[in-house]
Structures are given as structure tokens and as C-alpha cells.
Amino acid sequence: MAVVKSWIAEKGGRRRWIWVTTALVVVLLAVVMNPMISVFRGTDKPCHCAKDAHKYSGMVEDCCCNYETVDHLNEEVLHPTLQELVKTPFFRYFKAKLWCDCPFWLEDGLCHLRDCSVCECPESEFPETFKKPFNGGFSSEDLICQEGKPQAAVDRTLDTKAFKGWVEVDNPWTNDDETDNAEMTYVNLLLNPERYTGYTGTSARRIWDAIYTENCPKYPSGEFCQEKKILYKLISGLHSSISVHIASEYLINEVTSTWGQNLTLLYDRVLRYPDRVGNLYFTFLFVLRAATKAADYLEQAEYDTGNPDDDLKTQSLMRQLLYNPKLQAACPIPFDEAKLWKGENGPELKQQIQKQFRNISALMDCVGCEKCRLWGKLQVHGLGTALKILFSIDGQELLGQSLQLQRNEVIALMNLLNRLSESLKFVHEKGTSADMAIEGQLSAPAAQSCPLQRIWASVVGTKDGHSSCPAPASQGCPLQRMWNSICGSR
Question: pTM of the predicted model, to two decimals?
């Protein structure tokens, strides 16, 4: 019997060594074949076969369209048209006060990046004809500005030429005095993109704290009054959009001035909070509804900059956007404002929201970063214009007779709609990649504790680097099963 046991033990030992040898051969083959496998894999871009699988589905809360329809319309219709529209001379320049004192506290916020400042052209660089009342068109070849970019020259003729159909009256929803041209300056938005500027810390937090805490605190859970939720959702959606743009154009390396995408920041600030994504869609549909409600007014407006070709293109793009048959068929009323303010407290609630939004508008003068202040003012002004269109005019039939918009309001409205459109597109395209990247980081410490696991992950890991064997103890991993059969499971 002892001989038999010895023979069995010896045979078991041989079998175990066979397994060990086999495992080592597999490991060596994995090391050799891994570069070849990487070559045959091609790019590290995520597979497009799951592109149509929406992470967000169903109706957007308090709106009349679903997530899938919004993404489809934005990709096919809205985003391409808006991208062209905001590059036209009429929508390229925004008039703003950039040097106002903060009315609430002494602002000492500093931004350490060059990208925090707004690029303006010195007046000496303008042709004399630009300083006189408009007397003809101009050519881009005549414009000379810093960094050799002619499109940076601020078109001062827009400030002095009388535009038919445009008025200069204050918007009751915003704080800036639009009639005070002496303190206004035109800024080329194409030369001053909204992106990461390095504006962080106490100064930036104080702005958002003042906005949320004092002017639009989050409504309590279970709140059914849509009027009480609307301001918070609009500001939250705008905040999400700003975060998306920071993540999409982030300064990866300040030394080499390398810009790229920061999907971790996108996840941390927006994607991990479903309500923030929902509010982004809500704000987009709210602003889109304002634009389509004022379609007749906006179509008849004169987008006159002195260049007939550009002006005709601008008007054509506006018609394409506002009267697109796909938009009218799929989402004719993105947001239904008619059902609001019907209760006995309706007028009082509207006045309260208007006062709170004016305070938010005034807070933009407290932003310590000049470029952040520019885009904050523009987008808040655009929201104020949307509120003015939807809530200051009663009834669609009276809209054309009663509505009066400033040129600056239309510029802000359409640029805001474009920024929101860009944010939706980025979230739709990169959301899944960002989620998977974060999940991979969270599971990485456990997965990397086993040498065989690391090798296996490098061979059969998914294309985003997230191993298909999430932990060493997983019995679904072939190498793990082999190792357990050799050494025994722990």
C-alpha cells in the first residue's frame, strides 16, 4: 500500500509539474504575442457597435422630448447648423462689460494662466473707417490684429451702425445696463474659446456657493411644483455644460502647452450625477424652445454687418435651424411653458425667480477670471433672453407684436444654444468611455495584485484597458483557474 501511495504521489507531482510547465509556456507565449496582438487590435478607440445603445433613455424630466430623440436631432440637425451660425460675423462678436466691480464683495481672485485673459485688439489697429459711422462693407484682408489673426479684430462698426429692427432696452431678467455703450466692449468669441483657464479655489467656489445657496437652492426631494424647480435646473444644466467644456478642452501639460480631453474630470463633475446630466438636457430643450417660439421674429430680423454674402448666409442658417422639418416632426415643443404660472401664486413665483436670476446675473461681475467672466456673462445673458421670450410674453399670437430683442440678446441666445449643443454631443460620444475608464481605475488595484492576472489582462483585456478578469479570485479567468489547480485555491 505504501508503494502505491508513493507511486500516486509521484504521479501527482509529475502532473503538477506538467501544469507548471504548461503555465510557464502560456506565460512566455503571452509575453511574445502581446505586441502582435496589440498590432492586430488596431486603435484603442472604443467599439462603435454599441454606439446606438443610449445610457440615458426615456423622457427628459419636465420636457416634451426623450433623450434618444434629442441626441439624434442634435447630431443630425442642430449641432452642424449652430456650428456654422456662430462663426458668422453677426454672431461672432459679443458686447459686454468686463471691468465692473463686484457688487457683493471685494474680488481678489487671480488666474495664473495666460488663457484666463480675453484677447482684445487695441483701437490703434482699427482702420479709420471703423471708427466712423458705417459707410460700406469691409474685407477680412484689411483687418490686422495681435498674433496675426485677422478674425480677432473687433468690428467696431457694429457698435455705431443703426440696425433696423434692433432696439436697446434693458432685459428685466438680467442685471447689465445694455444701453450704457460707453462701458461696453466687443469681444471676438472665436478668439476667446470657453475652456480650462486655471480659475479654481476659493474665488471660484464662492461664486457657485452664492448662486446655489442664496439664489437657487436645490428643491426638496418630492417637489412637484415645476415653477419651484425650474431655476435650479437651468443653473445646474448650465453649470454642467461649463464643466463639460472644461473637460473637453483641458490643459494636460502646462509646460508644453498640451491641450486634450480630461474624461476623469468629466466623470467626477457631471457623469457620476445623473441629475446633472438630466438638467443639462433640460436646459438645452428650454433654450431651444425659446428660439423656436421666437422663430418668426428671428427670421424677419436683419442680420446686417455690411457684408451682403455673410448676412444672407446668416439668415439662411437661422431659417434652417428654426424651421427644420425633422425638428418640427420629432420635437415640435421641446418645453411647454404654457402650463406654468397658472396657480394663484404664479405671478408671485415669477417675480421671485426673476429677482433671483437678476442676482445671478450680477454675480458674474464677481468672477475673478476675465475669460470666465466673459462666457459667464454671455451664457447667463442667453438664459435671461430665453426666460424673457418664454415668460415675459403671454401667448404665441402676441409674440410677434410684443417681443423686442436686442442684438446682443440674440447673439447670446444662439451662442448659448451652441455651447449646450456641444456639451450634449460630447457627453453622448464620450460618456461611456469616461464611465469605463473610471471603472477600470477603481478595479485596477485588485486586478494588478496577481502577476498572472496582469499578463492575462494585457492579452485579453478590453480595448479601454479594463480587464475582462476583474479580480484575482475570479474563477472565470483561465490563468487563474490554472494557477489554482497548480497551487491550490487560497
Answer: 0.71
